[in-house]
Amino acid sequence: MKKVIVVLLLAPMIAFAQKPIKPNLNKALKLWQDNKLDEAKAMIDVAETDPKLSLDGKTFYYKGLIYAALDTTSNDNFKKLAENPLTTAMAAFDKAESMGKGKGYFISDQMGLPILKEQQLQVLASTYLNKGVAAYQEDDFDGAIAYFRKSQTVNLKDTTAYFYSGYANFQKEDYKAAVEDLKKYQENGGKSQDSYLLIINALNGPLEQKEEALKIVKDAKVKFPNNSDLPKVEIGILIDLNKVDEAKGGLEQAIAKEPTNKILHFYLGYVNSKLEKWEESKINYLEALKIDKDYFEAQYYLAQIYLIDAEKVKREMNNLGISKEDQKKKLELDKTLVDKYKIALPYWEKANTMKIDDNNTRIEVLDKLSMMYYYLGEDAKAAAIEKKLKELGVDNN
After folding, report:
1. Domain residue limits at 331
2. 125 touches 158 (CB < 8 A)
3. Burial of 224 (0-12, 13-18, 19+ CB in 10 A)
4. pLDDT tens digit string along 258-288?
């Protein structure tokens, strides 16, 4: 009986006794390939302290692979095995590189073909990028940015991850971070026009760094000479900075060199309209239309000017009271408003016959026509316009 007791007491001791791990790089790699990440980590951690294996760059290459797997695994138990495993993985990859002195690291796939370390890092970066995109699509901007940052950690010279994180930061209204990311995207070779436009919008708007925004616009204009929005943005910033002479003077000089450039005439009209020099603005838009009779933007802005006086009259009417004197004044203003609408109407009718790419603008043109036809008693024409608006999904009833 005593012998049985002794055996039972010794059994737990035997069960808890652990044999020390004998470091083996091939085994560590095999464990990683079999997704036994807990055993793989234990093996590579011991290998790193081995007097001989600690001098082998391959030890740290494998450590990078294993710790990168710990960072991307979906297994919660494996996730708990290390803090900041990606940081550890990248440090291990860097150490392997420094020890290798130009030696290329690789493993073999099931077909025996080599998979280079660079290829593996590219896959790792893409994994984080895809996870970031998925998070972004769920409106999880913080989660998306965290994944994009990891992709950047793996590939410092990447462009896509910086563009995506910049865009995500812009969406969450962290404009400073957005600008930093998008500038890094450009430094790494990114050439998207959108990156410039986002930076300009952030600097010109919420960050209130208009001088810096102006510098970016000027740089972008050189890089993207065919972008029709940039000159308009530049003019707007110049006006905001009270650099009206620069805006107007530059356009007048450009027109002197290119008198048949409709865009320059259009932008000069835009500047003059901002300065409320309506008659000069009309001349500029008409000059643009002489060059190109189908130039919708010039026709549209010209039509807008002709409604300005009408809107002033309409506001004055709406502010009148109900006294006899006010009612008399209202009748006088009503006649004036009719005259103003009759002057403006042909310009809007002309705009409606032209090619309009933007659906919202198309709706606005139709809406203005509907309003004027209704006020002028052109019921049939007003009904036809209302029908078109309904076809576009707008119901004013």
Report:
1. 310-397
2. yes
3. middle
4. 899 998 899 899 999 888 899 999 999 999 9
